[in-house]
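Give me structure tokens for this 121-residue protein.
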Amino acid sequence: MLYPSGFIEELKARNPIENVISRYVELKRAGSNMVGLCPFHSERTPSFTVFQDDFHCFGCSAGGDVITFVMRMENLEYRDAVAYLADRCGSGRELIGYFPKSRTDARAQLCHEQDSRKSIL
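Here you go.
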């Protein structure tokens, strides 16, 4: 596990998808959802829908959660998008220590966790 349990859920709760996407796309309320022009392709009529926890474009089939959106818009990898959102909500600097610096560090962390679990059993 690369992040502490519950970290990603807390990060998503602190960065509501509507707030993050509305910085890039003009959204309008349509019932319980929000709609706008898709930032990933050219269009004249809105096919980009933001639901409570995720988004989907019915024109280009792009979709995902707030982390996926930031990855696509800012051209970031997953780890960097998580750090971006953590910084955005003000909890980034104290949590950066949880992020492995490389894949090697991530593998070492996983191996250490697996060894710890084996020793408990």
